Each structure stands twice: as structure tokens, then as C-alpha cells.
Amino acid sequence: GILVQKQINQNAKDHSVKSLHNQYGFITAVLGFFGVELKNVFLPAKQTHNIPVPNKQEIEKILHIIHEDKEIECQVLLALTCSLRQSEISALTPKNISGNIVEVCGARVYNKDHKLVWKPTNKTEKSNRKVAMPNYLADLIHQQCEKVKDGFLFSQAPKTVLKRFKKLLTENDLPP
């Protein structure tokens, strides 16, 4: 247990609490397979995250500021109103759009060489879904489909969109 505790303490300098708990779970599973039980190993307490929820005034302000940035407006609205992940938004093509429905299937993620690659599966099996879009967003998406015709609807990397959105929030005195 002493060696494991030392390693946990060392890893705590560079890893999140969740990662430490995952590492410990892996170690105990492997050692348990060989009949070894660990005792007296202490992990940091799991953290709770308080995500700020905007009020009506803040929502109106957010909608106004993203409307001013046409390059990211669609992606931000897909995330905020349809609960799509960055990787799912990045993978959308005109074929995924039908009326007010966006069909989510596949994702664009970074590979080990830090290049965006398409993969046909999402984070979970339930991630493949059809989501209704608000009329305003559906109109914007259809305009984007007219421009793109074929290929991915959005050229910006997911990281770039999130970075720009957070910058807009900060510049407008809103919490990121």
C-alpha cells in the first residue's frame, strides 16, 4: 500500500481527481485478480462542479453576442439548444439535416497526431440520435447546407469554436 500511496501522491501533481480514482481502480482490479488487497491508500475527495446557469437576461445577451459572430453561431446554437457535443457538430454534413431534424451519427475527433479524423461511432451507443432544432437554427443550418453542398458543414476545429465562444463570453462580462 505504501508504494501505491506514493505513486498516487506523485500522480496528484499532474492528474485530475477523476484520473487518480481511475488509476486506483485499475491497480486494485489487477492486484485483486492475484489475490492482493490494498489497505490504507487515501485518494483525494471527488470534486463537484458548479456549472453556472445563465438567467434570462444573460441568455438574451449570449444569443445577441453569438449572432454577431456568424462563423460560430450555428455550432454554438447546436451545442446550447440541441445538446450536441463539439465532436458531433464538427462531423455534421448536409446529409445529416432534414427539415428541422439533425441526425447525429459519427464524430470528428483528434487522433494521436492531433489531426481531426472522422469516426463512424460516437461516445456512446445512445449518442446516435435525431434531434429537433428550433426554427431559427434550422434556417441557419439550411443556409450553411446551401453553401457547403458536400463535406463537413463547418470548417473550424471544435477547439477553435469553443475558444472563440469563451472569449466572447469573457469580453461581454459573462462567465465562461
In order across it, which strands form the biggest sheet?
1-2-5
Q: Report the biggest beta sheet as strand number plus sense, adding barrel if it closes.
A: 3 strands, antiparallel
Number of strands: 5
Return the string of H and E elements: HHHHHEEEEEHH
SS strand fraction: 5-15%
Secondary structure class reads: mainly alpha
The number of helices is 7
* Overall geometry: elongated
Quaternary arrangement of the chains shown? single chain
Helix content: 40-55%
In round numbers, the mean pLDDT is 91
Rg (CA only): 21 Å
**Which spans of ≥5 residues are poorly predicted at pLDDT below 50?**
none
Kindly, what is the distance between the CA atoms of the first and last residues, rounded to a whole number of angstroms? 40 Å
Walk me through what this model shows.
- Helix 3 (56-68) runs antiparallel to helix 4.
- The longest helix has 17 residues, at 17-33.
- Helices cover 49% and strands 10% of the residues.
- A hairpin with a 2-residue loop joins strand 1 (97-98) and strand 2 (101-104).
- It contains seven helices and five strands, in the order H-H-H-H-H-E-E-E-E-E-H-H.
- The model has no long low-confidence stretch (mean pLDDT 91).
Give the helices and strands, then pairings.
Elements: H1 2-11, H2 17-33, H3 56-68, H4 70-82, H5 86-90, E1 97-98, E2 101-104, E3 107-110, E4 116-119, E5 129-132, H6 135-148, H7 158-171
Helix pairs in contact: 3-4
